[in-house]
Amino acid sequence: MWKKNVLVTAVSGDVGNSILKCLQPEVAPEVGHLYGCDMYPYPCGMNKVERCFQVPPCKEEEPYLHALLDIAETCHIDVIVPSNEQEIAALSRRRNVIEAQGIRLFLHDAAVYDVFFDKKKTQGLLQSLGLPFLPTWRAAEYQEQGTFPLVLKDAFSCGSKSLRIAHDEAELARWLDRKGDQIIQRCVGTPDSEYTVPVFSGDGGRHVVALPLRRILSKAGYTSFIELARPEYQEKIFAICTKIAAHIKLHGSIDLQMREENGVFYVFECNPRLSGTVNFRRQLGFEDARWWLQSLSQEDLTIPFQLPEQSFVGIRELNEEIVWRNEHDDTV
Predict the structure, then answer these.
(1) How far apart, in whole angstroms, are the C-alpha atoms of residue 166 and residue 265?
(2) Which residues pair with 38 in a beta bridge?
């Protein structure tokens, strides 16, 4: 087995830190050495890697790229795993430079990001595929077409950080930013009817595995509780997943976020990356971080995943660590 040296970015974030847990060499034998980087000097997650490097923010694209390439040369990196949308967008634009150095990336085709990083385009794709979709307007073009409550959020995918819910005209006026890249969307379901669904394919969307999870979000915006979707919902959810995966010729992992209303499942967002529940699902046998790594060296990877038969709940816990500093090195 070719053991790969892996660099995970933004390890202080919810997603990056969870990815590190899934790629520890003792649980992912494909990993030889695991490294991390972050814009902060002492990020959460630095205790889970051999070395952790501080890098410039990815908005400083050229210095950021050079920092990653320097790390790659120093540590003989084979694979880079970007963990947030901003870094994914930056690395997607420069993938040719990175891949020319023999480094593989956890990235989808640029066309996938063009659609899924724009929430209005995402709804347009769902509509074109004949799937349930949400009426969505760009803020600059909105002419009071929607029925309250309405959701306002940034068009560029960034989780729930920018999300606001307007219940009437006054709230809409308070949150509406016609000069920004904001979208307005019909609000469906309730917080208790929200689902996160990781979807993986290792052969271009011909064989697809998915894990439909009902979730509860914390006030900080990350998933704090999960349980398996009810049996009568699983087939509906899986049908949506397979249709999207086949259309985009999925090779790797995406995460569909849905809400259920009157038995209909609406995808309100698609994260074209590993998501924050990646370590939850690893413990359930859905090891898409490992599978994606395997798929980089195996053209057609088929995964024989089965949904868990035993009932479970997943609970996010807090943790505390002491990390001893190395005073003679700029890494930890």
Answers:
(1) 22
(2) 54
The DSSP code for 125 is H
Model confidence at 161, pLDDT cuts 50, 70, 90, reads: low
**C-alpha to C-alpha distance for 250 and 240, rounded to whole angstroms:** 14
The pTM of the whole model exceeds 0.85: yes
Query: 261 - beta bridge partners?
Result: 264
Instruction: Return the SS3 of 111.
Output: helix
pLDDT band, very low/low/confident/very high, at 208 (cuts 50, 70, 90)? very high
Residue 74: name the closest of 8, 5, 1, 4 by CA. Answer: 5
- Establish how many alpha carbons lie within 13 A of residue 61's alpha carbon, considering only the half-sphere containing its beta carbon: 11
Instruction: Answer whether residue 157 shows pLDDT above 80.
Output: no
Residues in the chain: 332
Structure tokens at 126: 């769902």
In angstroms, what CA-CA distances link 109 with 95, 115, 206, 219, 252? 10, 11, 17, 33, 11
Element spanning 254, H or E:
strand 252-261
Q: Find where tokens 């529940």 sit.
A: 277
